[in-house]
Amino acid sequence: MKITQISVFLENRKGRLHQVCDLLGKAGINILALTIAETEDFGVLRIIVDKPEEALAVFAAEDLVARQSDVVVVQIEDHPGGLADVLAVLQQSDVNIEYMHAFLGRRSEQAYMVFRFEQPDEAISVLKKAGIRVIENDEVVQL
Amino acid sequence: MKNRYFQKEIETESREKLEENQLKDLQNTIDRALTTGFYRKKLNDAGITSGKDLKKLSDISGVPITQKDELRSLYPEGLKAVAPEEIIRLHTSSGTTGIPTVIYHNRNDIQSWAELMARSMVAAGAGPEDVFQNMTGYGLFTGGLGMHYGAEFLGMTVIPTGSGNSSRQLRLMNDFRTTIVHATPSYLLHLYDQLEESEYELDDLALKKAFLGAEPYSESTRKKLEALWGIDVYNSYGLSEMNGPGVSFECEYKNGMHTWEDAFLLETLDPENHQPVPEGESGELVFTTLKREATPLLRYRTRDISRIIPGVCECGRVHRRIDRISGRTDDMLIINGVNVFPSQIEAVLMKIPEVGTNYQIHLAKDGALDRITVKVEIYSKLFTGDLGQLEEIRSRIRSRLHASIIIHPRVELHEPGSLPVAQGKAVRVVDERGGDS
């Protein structure tokens, strides 16, 4: 239900993102979703990968500042207003979104969004009640 | 050049007369110091139980040195050689561990400080006809009130602007025909850039002189400022333990700063063994207060390195001159006129749990002003994955540093292991400001 996302603290330094992605590539870990939140001189890379435990081990071995957190991946109807419908449900139920970013699904019929909620369990039940599909843990690699 | 004096007799008396008075005042100062527990023990241990034990000025070599750390250890009680009800003001300086030193003043002390200040400014050509704009911080920073009282005592029209707010500074300079300013060298350079962008014209200003202190600067910076503004620039030296400004000041000949030896016994010592260096050679400036009543200080180590300029100045003042400060015997940094020790920054950083053990202080020039960047490594275990958390850590570091050292550094967050590992001070502090601004 809740999906593991890994946040990595990155200095804004040339080639830094490449180094991190390269570590994952060499370890045979696939990136499913990615976003970067940044300020002038540092950023936080947020990724969902197919093998989160292994990714955390790789980062730990390289002394990277990484932290896992739970996010919710939601299916969005891929037509105008699809995302707005989901957000309306959340707003009506007073569920607070900390941040969200797009999921890189490999099949194009559906869109998926990654949500970080203050209260993920409450959000999941609200979404489900409204008939919105919340992606299960083992499904995420197949999207 | 027409020499002006504020207290001609004191300023131009003979060396013999000066030293005769110095010995008398030194003996009195020892007696005052002996009324404090701190100095009683120190002096008794050195075999001194009365001022009269010093028969000649050179007997000062038997008086123990006073270190800043000792004063810090006395905080907040400090040294009081007068009854508490006699004290009318105190100033504190910041200290390396966050513990300041405190200096008390009674009415006579404030008055004699104002006299020294007025004497200094007259030596640099100021007079009651001048309009004086004081562009340094008021409050505990002694450059504000110290200069202010002296300028008023001398009879100038004082505009107490304090530091910063360049557009208002320029406006007041223009509207009230300011003839003399007191500022830090970096601020006066900065203000010139602001002037060029402002609605005011240099030709419309009445500025004639600037008194600059609180941070070291080179002779070529003086020349540059003089050329830019079309004014005369005079150097000022002081430290909060010796009141503040008004210890040493340049006269109109601009060839070294006259140290008011009737008020401060001046020594230049080898910083290692505390033995006097020959006159004219560089050493650490060590001062003994000769007039101060509330807080007497004996052989106080300033950590500032300079030399006594041999010979007599053309202005006729008997008080010897010191050269501009060439360095420090400790690792104190001077950032836009504010004294900062790396250890103060470290103390603040190490109290913030999200900060790792490694940090670096980076100093550079941003236009005329100093820019300090504090680079810290973040502590992995406390990273929550939030950008907001990182921003919060950064602003917390900034505000705590500001509270502790009164400067607003840029703060950079770095990954663990990315900053050079500190092996002594050199790696902790990277100063790219250059010797000459």
Based on the model shown, name its key terms.
A: alpha+beta, six-stranded antiparallel sheet, globular, B: 437 residues, alpha/beta, Rossmann fold, GMP Synthetase, Chain A, domain 3
Describe, in plain words, how this protein is organized in 3D.
The complex is a heterodimer of chains A (143) and B (437). With 143 residues, chain A is an alpha+beta fold. Chain A folds into 2 domains: 3-68, VC0802-like (2-Layer Sandwich), CATH 3.30.2130.10; 70-136, ACT domain (Alpha-Beta Plaits), CATH 3.30.70.260. Helices cover 29% and strands 34% of the residues of chain A. Chain A is built from 4 helices and 6 strands, in the order βαββαβαββα. A 6-stranded antiparallel β-sheet of chain A has the order 2-3-1-4-6-5. With 437 residues, chain B is α/β, with parallel strands linked by helices. Chain B folds into 2 domains: 8-330, Rossmann fold (3-Layer(aba) Sandwich), CATH 3.40.50.12780; 335-431, GMP Synthetase, Chain A, domain 3 (2-Layer Sandwich), CATH 3.30.300. Chain B has 12 helices and 21 strands. Chain B has helices at 8-12, 15-33, 37-45, 68-73, 107-123, 142-154, 166-175, 185-197, 219-229, 342-349, 387-405, 425-428, and strands at residues 87-93, 101-106, 131-134, 157-159, 180-183, 209-212, 232-239, 244-250, 257-259, 264-269, 283-289, 300-306, 308-309, 321-322, 327-328, 333-335, 338-340, 355-366, 369-378, 410-414, 429-431. A 9-stranded mixed β-sheet of chain B has the order 4-3-5-6-7-8-9-14-13, sandwiched between helices. In chain B, strands 10-11-12-15 form a 4-stranded antiparallel β-sheet. The longest helix of chain B is centred in the N-terminal third of the chain and has 19 residues, at 15-33. The model of chain B has no long low-confidence stretch (mean pLDDT 91). Classes of the chains: A alpha+beta (143), B alpha/beta (437). The A-B interface holds A 5, 7, 9-11, 13, 37-39, 41-44, 46, 63-69, 98 and B 378, 380, 383-387, 390-391, 412-418.
